C-alpha cells in the first residue's frame, strides 16, 4: 500500500490539531513513515541523526541570542517605545501605516519582539484610539469605531511581522526553507531566499497603506456627518 | 576555500553547542529548578548533536534526538527560575544609552549581509560571524562583561526553549519523507486533478496547499516541509521554476493561512484577549481581506517570477 506512506502527514495533522508536544509528534511522524516504507529502526535512527546534524544551520540563530538578551536588558524595548511615543499629530490610518513600516523594519533587522504584548496593547492601540478623536454622537457608533481600531492595530502587527520576517537572512523561516530545499536536493542560499522575500514585504506594506488611507477617509466622513447633525440642532 | 568555510561553519556549530551546554550546566546547578536533571539532559543532548554530531555515528545522534523527544513529550523540560528583566533598570539604562542600543541589532543584519555579498565566506558563515561580532559590539555599547552576556544568553535560550529546534527537526523530517518517497505518493494523488506540466495549476496547488495546511495545523513551518515535498517539487520546481523564488513565496503564502485561522492562537486570539475585543474572531475578520488579496499576489508572483 503506497498510501500508507502518508501516515506521517496524518500524525502531524492530528498531533498539531490536538496540541500534542510538537517535537515528539514530528519524531513520531518520521518513525512511522520510515517503518511503513520498509526501513529498519536502525536505518531510521541513522537517517534522523544524519538529517538533524546536517540541518544544524536552521538553528544557528541561537548564536544571536546573547546579543539580543543583552540589548533587551539594557532597554532596547524601552527606547523603541520612547521613539514611537514621540510620534504625534498623525491621523489614525497614517499612524497605523507607520507602525506597519516600523514592524517590517524590525523584521528586516531581526529585532525580535512579541508585538501584541509589548507594543500593540500598551502603546499602538491606545495611540491609534487617541488619534481617532472619536466623538460620535451615538455610543454604539463609538464602540463600533473603537472595535475596528482595535482589530486594525492587531492586524498591523501580524501583517508586518509575517510578511517581513523572512527578509532577514538568519530568520528561522528562511533557514528552514534553505534546509528543506537542500534536503530535497536543491542547493539554495539563505541570502537569495531573503532577497526573494522582499517583494512580498513591499506589496503587503503598499496594500496596507492604501487600506489605511481609505480608513482615514471613512473616519473623517463619519465625524463630519456627526458634526453636521450636531449643527442642525 | 570551501574546506576553510566548512571548518569555520563547524566552529560556529560547536560554539552554538557550547551555548546550549552552558544552559545545561546552569540548570544542573540550580537547586530551585523544578525538573533539574531532565531539563539539563535535554540541553546536553542538544548541545552534543551540535558540538560533536559531525564526529560520532549518525545513529547515536538519532538516538539523542529521540531522547529529546521523549523528554518534551512528558513535559520534563522546564524554563525554571530565570533572571526576569527589571523594567525600572532597563528604563534607566535606556535613558543613558539612547539610540546607541540599536547599534548591535542593526549591525547583526548589516554584517551578515556584507559578508554574504562581498566576501567568499558566504551567507552561512556570515550569520555566525555577524552573531559573534554583534555580541562584541553589544558588550562595548553596554559596557557589560562576559558574565552578564552569558547570563543573558542563558535566559534567552531558555525562553526560546524546546520549540526553538522545531524548524530544524522539520527540515530533518523532509529528508525522511524524501527517502520514503512520500512526495511521490502525494504527487501521484494530486496529478489526478492537476495535469503535470500545467504551470499555473501547479502554482495554485502549491500556494493553496500551503494556505490550507497552515490553517489546519496553525503552523506554516510544518506545512512547508510536507507541501514542498508533495506539491512544490513535482508540480512547480520540477517544471522549471526557480526553487529559491518558489520556496520563499510558498512560506509567506503559508503565513496568509496563519492570518485566517483560529489555530494560530498566539497571533489571532491573544490580541482579542489583550485588547478586550467583543468579537472573538474580530482580528481574523479584519485580516481576511488582506489574506485573500495576498494569496492572489502570491499566485501571480510565483507564476510570473519563478518561471
UniProtKB/TrEMBL annotation, chain A:
Membrane-spanning intervals of the chain = 7-37, 57-76, 162-181, 193-215
Q: Which UniProt keywords apply?
A: Membrane, Transmembrane, Transmembrane helix
Pfam families documented for this protein: DUF969
Keyword check for Transmembrane, yes or no.
Answer: yes
- Indicate whether Transmembrane appears among the record's keywords: yes
Q: What is this protein called?
A: Uncharacterized membrane protein
Name its species.
Alkalibacterium gilvum
From TrEMBL, chain B:
Q: Which InterPro entries match?
A: DUF979
Kindly indicate whether the keyword Cytoplasm belongs to this entry. Answer: no
- Pfam families linked: DUF979
Entry keyword Hydrolase: no
Query: What residue ranges are annotated as transmembrane?
Result: 12-29, 59-77, 97-118, 124-142, 163-194, 206-237, 244-267, 287-306
Which UniProt keywords are present, listed alphabetically?
Answer: Membrane, Transmembrane, Transmembrane helix
Query: What's the superkingdom here?
Result: Bacteria
What protein name is recorded for this chain?
Answer: Uncharacterized membrane protein
- Taxonomic source organism: Alkalibacterium gilvum
Amino acid at each position: 500500500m503506497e498510501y500508507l506512506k502518508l501516515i506521517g502527514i496524518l500524525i502531524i495533522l492530528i498531533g498539531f490539531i490536538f496540541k500534542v508536544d510538537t517535537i515528539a509528534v514530528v519524531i513520531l511522524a518520521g518513525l512511522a513513515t520510515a517503518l511503513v516504507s520498509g526501513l529498519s529502526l536502525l536505518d531510521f535512527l541513522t537517517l534522523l541523526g544524519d538529517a538533524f546534524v546536517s540541518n544544524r544551520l536552521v538553528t544557528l540563530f541561537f548564536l544571536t541570542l546573547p546579543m539580543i538578551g543583552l540589548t533587551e536588558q539594557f532597554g532596547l524595548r524601552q527606547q523603541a517605545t520612547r521613539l514611537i511615543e514621540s510620534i504625534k499629530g498623525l491621523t489614525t490610518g497614517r499612524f497605523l501605516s507607520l507602525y506597519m513600516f516600523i514592524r517590517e523594519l524590525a523584521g528586516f533587522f531581526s529585532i525580535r519582539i512579541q508585538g501584541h504584548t509589548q507594543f500593540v496593547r500598551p502603546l499602538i492601540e491606545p495611540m491609534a484610539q487617541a488619534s481617532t478623536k472619536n466623538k460620535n454622537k451615538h455610543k454604539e457608533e463609538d464602540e463600533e469605531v473603537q472595535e475596528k481600531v482595535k482589530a486594525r492595530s492587531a492586524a498591523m502587527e501580524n501583517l508586518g511581522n509575517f510578511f517581513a520576517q523572512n527578509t532577514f537572512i538568519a530568520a528561522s523561516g528562511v533557514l528552514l526553507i534553505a534546509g528543506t530545499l537542500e534536503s530535497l536536493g536543491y542547493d539554495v542560499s539563505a541570502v537569495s531566499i531573503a532577497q526573494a522575500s522582499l517583494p512580498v514585504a513591499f506589496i503587503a506594506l503598499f496594500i496596507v497603506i492604501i487600506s489605511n488611507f481609505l480608513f482615514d477617509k471613512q473616519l473623517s466622513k463619519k465625524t463630519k456627518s456627526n458634526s453636521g447633525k450636531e449643527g442642525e440642532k | 576555500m570551501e574546506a576553510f568555510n566548512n571548518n569555520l561553519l563547524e566552529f560556529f556549530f560547536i560554539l552554538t553547542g557550547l551555548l546550549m551546554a552552558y544552559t545545561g550546566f546552569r540548570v544542573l546547578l540550580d537547586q530551585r529548578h523544578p525538573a533539574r536533571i531532565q531539563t539539563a539532559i535535554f540541553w546536553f543532548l542538544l548541545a552534543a548533536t551540535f558540538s560533536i554530531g559531525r564526529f560520532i555515528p549518525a545513529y547515536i545522534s538519532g538516538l539523542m534526538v529521540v531522547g529529546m523527544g521523549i523528554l518534551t513529550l512528558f513535559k520534563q523540560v522546564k524554563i525554571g527560575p530565570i533572571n526576569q528583566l527589571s523594567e525600572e533598570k532597563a528604563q534607566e539604562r535606556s535613558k543613558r544609552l539612547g539610540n546607541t542600543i540599536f547599534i548591535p541589532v542593526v549591525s547583526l543584519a548589516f554584517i551578515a549581509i556584507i559578508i554574504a555579498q562581498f566576501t567568499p565566506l558566504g551567507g552561512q558563515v556570515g550569520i555566525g560571524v555577524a552573531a559573534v561580532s554583534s555580541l562584541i559590539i553589544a558588550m562595548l555599547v553596554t559596557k557589560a562583561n562576559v558574565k552578564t552576556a552569558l547570563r543573558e544568553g542563558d535566559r534567552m535560550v531558555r525562553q526560546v526553549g524546546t520549540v526553538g529546534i522545531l524548524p530544524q527537526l522539520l527540515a530533518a523530517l523532509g529528508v525522511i519523507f524524501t527517502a520514503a518517497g512520500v512526495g511521490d505518493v502525494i504527487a501521484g494523488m494530486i496529478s489526478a486533478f492537476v495535469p503535470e506540466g500545467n504551470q499555473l495549476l501547479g502554482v495554485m496547488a502549491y500556494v493553496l496547499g500551503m494556505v490550507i495546511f497552515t490553517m489546519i495545523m496553525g503552523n506554516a513551518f510544518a506545512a512547508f516541509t510536507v507541501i514542498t515535498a508533495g506539491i512544490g517539487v513535482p508540480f512547480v520546481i520540477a517544471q522549471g521554476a526557480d526553487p529559491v523564488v518558489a520556496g520563499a513565496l510558498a512560506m509567506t503564502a503559508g503565513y496568509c493561512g496563519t492570518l485566517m485561522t483560529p489555530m494560530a492562537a498566539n497571533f489571532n486570539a491573544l490580541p482579542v484577549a489583550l485588547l478586550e475585543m467583543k468579537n472573538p474572531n474580530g482580528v481574523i475578520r479584519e485580516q481576511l481581506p488582506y489574506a485573500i488579496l495576498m494569496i492572489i499576489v502570491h499566485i501571480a508572483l510565483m507564476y510570473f517570477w519563478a518561471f
